């Protein structure tokens, strides 16, 4: 869920719109109250509007669902959030809709500790292979789109796991990328990590935690990789390394009908 | 700067919620201890005491997060509610429950002779409470109230759930933007620590001043 | 001045006062004695309703103060009470202790009250302690301040509950001296005490309370030289030993 | 069921952290009150007291979240650490600071005559503490300890940050799966409330039992 | 048995005991009197190091107990102490109060201690209170239990600090009776008290402590009939009044 290029330059579109009117597109955002989930890409780009001369306010919620409730009660004008959860919110609330114009497109990558470039290289190699042999698209197809059957990727029966365990930190509250099914974390990220582990000849163990803890788990060595719909930004690269991207997503704007 | 804004909000919320909590807590404590100290409480007192007990149980029994959420999303649903007011209200009401039991223990530990002396001079219940009982109870439980305010200060960190930026939230935002995990966390922790140390120092000064008339034993 | 009629007090099932009838007339110094736990304090505290009687009536200057409609605070202002444990307010100076009630009850301005307080401190021999806190005083001094505090309201009657029992032996004398002076000035007093000397010297009447009743009541003279009730005889023999 | 698992973890963490907190708290309280009650504390006692004071300030001054994070990500960095143990340790150490001040107030409120009676009979410091002072202090501060355990119970809700599923986290997971904002939250709140009510009831029973020898006043 | 040499005690700058030298011999009953705050309690409490002296030495059965190397707990076991405020342990039954120290100090098994406790309760006249809690006892009964508790360790000397000052007048007698009985049985005793009758009747020597020193020391006979120091004269005149 977290940062690449906004579709248009955020600051540039800030001149025309009326502060009190409804939000019908990105150009209307200045002067509005924008709800986001802390730490998402939506948060990061919405921040560019914050404190502009139109008086845009960004309200950061710990959970997306609470931002949506604020929107329903009219306490904020719109919510910028990942496309997948947005679809569910809209389907469950008749009074909400997603604007056609996406707010930003983003690409997800896996984060690894800066000292562990060997692992990063191996994962990049594995990703390249998985893209090439179609496994990646197949996995995503199981979870997103019309043919989604929510079927988890299975390691081959004869898979070699002799190279030890790959520990993945994630926050299983972001379907369809990761969520809990009983004890198990399932979803696109879990499947891709498993596929990568297979390529590396390793076992996969998934550690589910608060999103804010994932980086710490990786930098402290508690986990080898963080896979949780994370987007690469300059600022973040100062502190952790990212592999090549493995999936595309977008941030959208939800408003009241 | 996020930190400056967050700190400002944290302080505003803590101070006003603490004031509200003290006000509520004292009223509740008076009700509860009047009830407990009287042989045969009247019907009004018994009803008030019952209400107070329910309040204490429900408020202390449920997470403050849930309370804040209910106030913000359940009660004050109007789009025009001022968020910080709702948060102050929620935390004040929460804190009031803890303050109440603390103050009650301060009242109960006072000699009943203090009340009797006041009443025997012809002061009414209210005058006795405000002039004689409360100042002493307050002095006695000041350290415990300090605990409560420290807890309150740190508890306000959950207001990120209703989209309010406090100190903790400010740290979270920086963390999420930079993916630098430890520094913002430690920075925020140090700020909390400094506030707590200032608070402890102020409370210590206040306590010493209140105790100035007392014999060292 | 105070008329008590069939006064009853029970704590739960425990009957402490079982129908006491007596009278305290203007100018009298009534001394109350009795074994520990016999209800002396309960009786005295009932007189200004610090204990609510469970039966009977108390008339103060003709008004039935046990009637729930009576404003007891007004009547309490006319009855000074002095406790065994002094019960000074530790967070206030001596001056503030004395002036609090007169000012808060609207009887005097702070100035008047301060003035009166100094006068009273003079009377109890402690003018230099006006700005001390209670914890800095000796027991005897505390009790003298407590007496001054009660007098500040200009009461018509003073109730004393073992005012010297918590005092060091050397300090008993100074408090008794104040009380004697007060009695001589004509103050109506009811005094629970174990100081038989005081009872003999300034008491106008002595009551022996036991088993929830006044078992004997007489002039000090008769009371001590010629006790009638066997329990009183036993009591006096132990205490005067 | 997430809720059942989360509840189990919440209870385990709370109970063991409370036990650890009590143990630590009593030791700290003994140090602090021995220091404060003695005319001329020896050098060892003064050093211990200083350490205790620093501990109390730092632990009470910083958010428990930061403490848990530091223990888990900063101290026990080995991948093999048992998560729940680290969490119990972190919360126990945190709780110990609060328990310490509570117990200290209980010790300070006891008459010094109790210690003197014990020592004058030839009991040593340790025997006097365990047989005479602690049981009475414990009884006196039971209500305040109750407060502390209630706080602890609800504070354990942050252990989601180190990937432990507790009751609150279970609610969050259900919220994320069902996109239902309020119900899981209220459900979790009710469970907390029930636990608190059971705890309050148990503490009330314990208090009555401990007070059985006392005169009602 | 106890020899005190140049004992000094100051609280901060406040010198309370200023070089006291005296001796308590086996079988003696030494009564200590003096004004409030003169240091009587401090002196008595120094004898078993409840107060650490700031100077001088105390020898108990030949051992210098002020020497930091001495195990004071062992010596305290041979000195029973009785306080004004009883200081019974409210969370334990009477029986447990008495047996705690003998058992914990390893002097007796619980059975032996129980047996001894019953014997002692018999001696202080309270065999039926073994299973009561202190709060259910009257003041006089509490103090008798406290005496039994101190005796349970089989002490060589008993120290009493105003054992009857917190008692109701009717109960003073019962505690004094036990103490007299103890004195007659040959127990060495040091007693701070305001009960002049007791001093006269059973004391073998009376000390008057004032201004940090023993200002007068004599047989009861001489002490009361022929006081020499002016402060003692004044004191006796106030207290015996
Ligand atoms: N608030 C109370 N609740 C229950 N019982 C009480 C209460 N106050 C007093 N009593 C009981 O009432 C009886 C009389 O008590 P009271 O204090 O009047 O006696 P007293 O004659 O003043 O004794 P003392 O000489 O010890 O002061 C006692 O048995 C006491 O235990
Ligand atoms: N712990 C203490 N710290 C400071 N001063 C003390 C302490 N204990 C006693 N004192 C002071 O030492 C002096 C002597 O006290 P002590 O209790 O020995 O007197 P006392 O003769 O026993 O008096 P009383 O008859 O009132 O019991 C008093 O002035 C008292 O204030
Ligand atoms: Mg009484
Ligand atoms: Mg003394």
TrEMBL record, chains B, D:
UniProt-listed GO biological process terms: amino acid transport
Topology in membrane: Multi-pass membrane protein
MF terms (GO), sorted A to Z: transmembrane transporter activity
One CC-aspect GO term: ATP-binding cassette (ABC) transporter complex
Domain of life: Bacteria
PROSITE patterns linked to this entry: ABC_TM1
Predominant localisation class: membrane
ABC transmembrane type-1 domain location: 7-203
Spans through the membrane: 12-31, 52-74, 80-100, 185-204
Keywords: Amino-acid transport, Cell membrane, Membrane, Transmembrane, Transmembrane helix, Transport
Location(s) in or outside the cell: Cell membrane
Similarity remark: Belongs to the binding-protein-dependent transport system permease family. HisMQ subfamily.
Xref: NCBIfam families: HEQRo_perm_3TM (TIGR01726)
Name under which the protein is recorded: Amino acid ABC transporter permease
Species this protein is from: Wansuia hejianensis
Organism ancestry: Bacteria, Bacillati, Bacillota, Clostridia, Lachnospirales
From TrEMBL, chains C, E:
Keywords: Amino-acid transport, ATP-binding, Cell membrane, Membrane, Nucleotide-binding, Transport
GO molecular function, one term: ATP hydrolysis activity
Protease listed as a keyword: no
Domain ABC transporter, chain residue ranges per copy: 2-236
Main localization category: membrane
Pfam families listed in its UniProt record: ABC_tran
Protein known as: Amino acid ABC transporter ATP-binding protein
């Amino acid at each position: 869920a977290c940062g690449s290029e906004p579709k248009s330059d955020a600051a540039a579109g800030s001149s025309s719109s009326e502060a009190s009117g409804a939000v019908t597109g990105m150009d209307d955002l200045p002067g509005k109250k924008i709800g986001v989930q802390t730490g998402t890409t939506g948060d990061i780009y919405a921040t560019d509007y914050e404190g502009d001369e139109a008086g845009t306010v960004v309200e950061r919620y710990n959970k997306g669902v609470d931002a949506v409730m604020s929107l329903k009660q009219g306490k904020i004008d719109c919510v910028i959030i990942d496309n997948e959860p947005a679809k569910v919110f809209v389907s469950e609330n008749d009074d909400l809709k997603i604007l056609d114009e996406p707010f930003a497109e983003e690409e997800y990558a896996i984060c690894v500790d800066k000292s562990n470039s060997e692992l990063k290289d191996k994962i990049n190699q594995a990703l390249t292979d998985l893209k090439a042999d179609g496994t990646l698209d197949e996995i995503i197809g199981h979870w997103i789109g019309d043919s989604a059957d929510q079927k988890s990727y299975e390691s081959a029966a004869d898979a070699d796991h002799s190279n030890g365990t790959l520990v993945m930190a994630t926050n299983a509250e972001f379907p369809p990328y990761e969520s809990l099914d009983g004890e198990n974390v399932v979803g696109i990220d879990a499947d891709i990590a498993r596929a990568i582990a297979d390529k590396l000849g390793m076992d996969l163990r998934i550690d589910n935690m608060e999103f804010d803890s994932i980086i710490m788990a990786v930098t402290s060595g508690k986990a080898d990789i963080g896979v949780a719909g994370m987007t690469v930004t300059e600022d973040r690269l100062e502190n952790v390394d990212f592999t090549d991207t493995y999936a595309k997503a977008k941030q959208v704007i939800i408003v009241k009908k | 700067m996020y930190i400056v804004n967050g700190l400002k909000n944290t302080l505003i919320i803590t101070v006003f919620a603490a004031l509200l909590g003290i006000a509520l807590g004292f009223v509740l404590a008076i009700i509860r201890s009047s009830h407990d100290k009287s042989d045969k409480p009247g019907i009004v007192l018994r009803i008030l005491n019952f209400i107070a007990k329910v309040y204490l149980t429900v408020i202390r029994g449920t997470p403050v997060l849930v309370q804040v959420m209910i106030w913000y999303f359940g009660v004050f649903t109007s789009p025009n509610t001022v968020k910080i007011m709702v948060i102050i209200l929620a935390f004040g009401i929460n804190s009031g429950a803890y303050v109440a039991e603390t103050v009650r223990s301060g009242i109960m530990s006072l000699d009943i002779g203090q009340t009797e002396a006041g009443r025997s001079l012809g002061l009414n219940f209210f005058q006795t409470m405000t002039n004689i009982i409360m100042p002493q109870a307050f002095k006695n439980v000041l350290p415990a109230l300090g605990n409560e305010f420290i807890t309150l200060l740190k508890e306000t960190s959950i207001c990120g759930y209703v989209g309010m930026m406090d100190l903790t939230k400010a740290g979270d935002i920086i963390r999420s933007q930079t993916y630098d995990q430890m520094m913002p966390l430690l920075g925020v922790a140090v700020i909390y620590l400094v506030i707590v140390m200032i608070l402890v120092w102020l409370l210590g000064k206040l306590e010493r001043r209140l105790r100035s008339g007392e014999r060292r034993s | 001045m105070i008329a008590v009629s069939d006064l009853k007090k029970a704590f739960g099932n425990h009957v402490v006062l079982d129908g006491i009838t007596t009278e305290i007339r203007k100018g009298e110094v009534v001394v109350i004695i009795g074994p520990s736990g016999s209800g002396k304090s309960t009786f005295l505290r009932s007189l200004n309703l610090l204990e609510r009687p469970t039966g009977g009536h108390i008339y103060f200057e003709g008004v039935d103060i046990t009637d729930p409609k009576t404003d007891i605070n007004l009547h309490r202002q006319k009855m000074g009470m002095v406790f065994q444990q002094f019960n000074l307010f530790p967070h206030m100076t001596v001056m503030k202790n004395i002036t609090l009630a007169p000012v808060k009850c609207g009887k005097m301005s702070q100035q008047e009250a301060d003035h009166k307080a100094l006068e009273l401190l003079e009377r109890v021999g402690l003018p230099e302690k006006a700005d001390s806190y209670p914890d800095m005083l000796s027991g005897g001094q505390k009790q003298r301040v407590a007496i001054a505090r009660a007098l500040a309201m200009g009461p018509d009657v003073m109730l004393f509950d073992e005012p010297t029992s918590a005092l060091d032996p050397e300090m008993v004398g100074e408090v008794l001296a104040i009380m004697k002076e007060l009695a001589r000035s004509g103050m109506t007093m009811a005094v629970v005490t174990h100081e038989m000397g005081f009872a003999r010297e300034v008491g106008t009447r002595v009551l022996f309370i036991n088993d929830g009743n006044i078992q004997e009541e007489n002039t000090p003279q008769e009371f001590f030289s010629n006790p009638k009730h066997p329990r009183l005889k036993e009591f006096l023999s132990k205490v005067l030993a």
